[in-house]
Amino acid sequence: xxxxxxxxxxxxxxxxxxxxxSKLTLPDGNTALVNLIHHEIFAKDTRLIxxxxxxxxxxxxxxxxxxxxxxxxxxxxxxxxxxxxPITLYKDSAxxxxxxxxxxxxxxxxxxxxxxxxxxxxxxxxxxxxxxFRLDAVKHGYVTFTTIDTNTLVFQFESHIEHDITALLQLxxxxxxxxxxxxxxxxxxxxxxxxx
Length: 196
Known about the structure:
The protein is mostly beta strands. The protein contains no helices and twelve strands. The protein has strands at 7-12, 15-20, 42-53, 64-75, 85-91, 94-101, 109-116, 120-139, 142-159, 166-172, 187-188, 192-195.
């Protein structure tokens, strides 16, 4: 089998530009989908649970809300960065949904949500405990002290899905908090943690 390149790739900053080898003419009012990259990549059907803080959750204690989505886990092993944009998802040649792919660097993992998931219930409870307390200073009648608090979140899942499925838990990153005892396979991004 021989393959004749139909486009030439060049790098512009962190983006890839493709110049088509020949002119493309489209009738007025029509659009065309031009397949520039054809590469099989790993994709897995999963469920993504997003844990969000409730507005009444002062000091991160108390009630919490969760949202569940049907999700595709996509590992970008193309060797190229994938630009952001809408994406249509197929399973066995049938469309299962549409989602949005965020810009995904090479060797990164993306999670594409495409539908709400009503067959997965999640119950969230949390416990807070002060692990350490240190007196820093007593000056002019004022006491300064430091505490180290831990907040343990417990997630219980109840699935009504007919087959085994991987559930991913997504938590918002907080610059004031440092997670401890996280599993090694946590995927970290600028604003969230995703835990398989």
